[in-house]
């Protein structure tokens, strides 16, 4: 970057040489912003493999890329990202920094904002132009309320919700330029102790025609029996769950559906006691038909569901199974 004009920066999210899809939402958000404020977009990649990832991204997107190769950053370190990006953001004179709202992005974005004296808006789902200003929309209370935020600072750091902006249109003339920089940055306060790969995702989830998923509304582990009994009435069915259910150890992580779990697209998805947080919806919104069972009539999952059952799952599921068994008996 040689001139001092303002820009919109996008920080790519990649792991073990592979770009995370959430990067595309962040690019799409930046392009939308660019249309509103008429500033150019530049992508930033960081880490050991930043050059390779950066060249691929420039080729694909047609956008200019700054690739910062950091030999010490073989694995993610929030402190390194914060330190290096604070220099990059100042050098680029970035008015907006769009960061994917992944686990990594959510980790370093607020620290970066503090370092560069920027406002930080987390989990941005849309951007609009309101009374001569850029307005960011974020969901609160598991998607029940949408808050609109404007910022007062020269620089704004955003984390962009995966699945909110979609894949940008890259039908452009030619590949973008790549600037590769090498940088030393040793973390002073933290040290990565290595990475642990998660267990493979449950292949049963990707192959299932019907997924019955349990959320925190299940109440207790013993109620999983209801979910399993409901799944058992369908051929080619599997049991999935939201993150709290996996965190509680009621289901295995390979059964988790959502941005940090599996992305599924079954014929039917039955969400039982799941509120409908974006992180969960991102993983199941491609299901053909969605049924949600929830005691809260205002649960956000009802905005996505084709059938909304406003009932207590501990009463509804046994009643449904009883009806099923009764109709089966009548047929035979
Ligand atoms: C970086 C990041 C990544 C994440 N990744 C994921 C992910 O991959 N997958 C994921 O699922 N989450 C993920 N989360 C967590 C996510 O934000 C939500 O916290 C989570 O999805 C909420 O799970 P839930 O709907 O089961 O629980 P809650 O939000 O607590 O909802 C429970 C629901 O059950 C209903 N309920 C209560 N009792 C009953 C009853 N008896 N019968 C019927 N309904 C009842 C309630 O009305 C409520 O709507 C992530 C979060 C972060 C920050």
Description:
This protein is an alpha/beta fold and about 325 residues long. The protein contains nine helices and 16 strands. The strands form three sheets. It has a nine-stranded mixed β-sheet with strand order 9-8-7-10-6-1-4-5-11, sandwiched between helices. It has a five-stranded parallel β-sheet with strand order 13-12-14-15-16. It has a two-stranded antiparallel ribbon with strand order 2-3. It is elongated and about 80 Å long. The chain starts with 6 loop residues before the first strand and ends with a helix. The structure holds flavin-adenine dinucleotide (FAD). Flavin-adenine dinucleotide binds near residues 260, 275 and 280. The site of flavin-adenine dinucleotide (FAD) has 31 residues, from helix 4, helix 7, helix 8 and helix 9.
Write the layout of secondary structure elements.
Elements: E1 7-11, E2 14-15, E3 18-19, H1 22-37, E4 41-47, H2 50-61, E5 65-69, H3 78-92, E6 94-100, H4 103-115, E7 119-130, E8 133-140, E9 145-149, E10 156-160, E11 178-182, H5 203-207, E12 210-214, H6 224-232, E13 237-241, H7 243-247, E14 268-272, H8 278-284, E15 289-293, E16 307-309, H9 313-331
Parallel strand pairs: 1-4, 1-6, 4-5, 5-11, 6-10, 7-10, 12-13, 12-14, 14-15, 15-16
Antiparallel strand pairs: 2-3, 7-8, 8-9
What ranges have pLDDT less than 50 throughout 5 or more consecutive residues? none
How many beta-strand elements? 16
How is the main sheet built?
9 strands, mixed
Overall geometric form:
elongated
């Amino acid at each position: 970057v040689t001139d001092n004009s303002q820009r919109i920066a996008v920080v790519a999210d990649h792991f073990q040489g592979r770009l995370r899809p959430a990067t595309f939402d962040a690019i799409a958000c930046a392009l939308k912003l660019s249309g509103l404020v008429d500033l150019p977009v530049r992508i930033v990649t960081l880490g050991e493999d930043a050059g390779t990832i950066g060249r691929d991204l420039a080729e694909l997107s047609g956008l200019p890329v700054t690739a910062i190769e950091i030999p010490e950053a073989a694995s993610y370190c929030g402190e390194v990202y914060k330190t290096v990006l604070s220099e990059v953001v100042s050098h680029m004179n970035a008015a907006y920094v769009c960061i994917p709202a992944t686990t990594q992005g959510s980790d370093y974005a607020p620290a970066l904002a503090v370092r560069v004296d920027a406002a930080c808006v987390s989990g941005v789902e849309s951007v609009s132009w309101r009374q001569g200003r850029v307005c960011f929309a974020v969901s609160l209370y598991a998607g029940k309320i949408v808050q609109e935020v404007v910022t007062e600072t020269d620089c704004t750091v955003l984390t962009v919700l995966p699945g909110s902006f979609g894949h940008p249109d890259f039908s452009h003339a030619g590949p973008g330029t790549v600037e590769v920089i090498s940088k030393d940055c040793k973390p002073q306060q933290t040290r990565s102790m290595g990475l642990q790969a998660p267990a493979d995702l449950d292949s049963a989830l990707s192959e299932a025609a019907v997924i019955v998923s349990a959320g925190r509304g299940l109440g207790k582990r013993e109620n999983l029996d209801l979910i399993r009994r409901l799944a058992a009435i369908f051929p080619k069915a599997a049991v999935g769950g939201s993150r709290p259910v996996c965190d509680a150890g009621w289901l295995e992580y390979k059964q988790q559906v959502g941005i940090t779990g599996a992305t599924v697209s079954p014929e039917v998805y039955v969400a039982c006691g799941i509120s409908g947080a974006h992180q969960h919806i991102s993983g199941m919104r491609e299901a053909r038909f969605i049924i949600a069972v929830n005691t809260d009539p205002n649960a956000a999952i009802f905005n996505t569901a084709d059938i909304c059952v406003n009932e207590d799952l501990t009463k509804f599921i046994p009643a449904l199974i009883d009806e099923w068994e009764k109709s089966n008996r009548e047929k035979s």
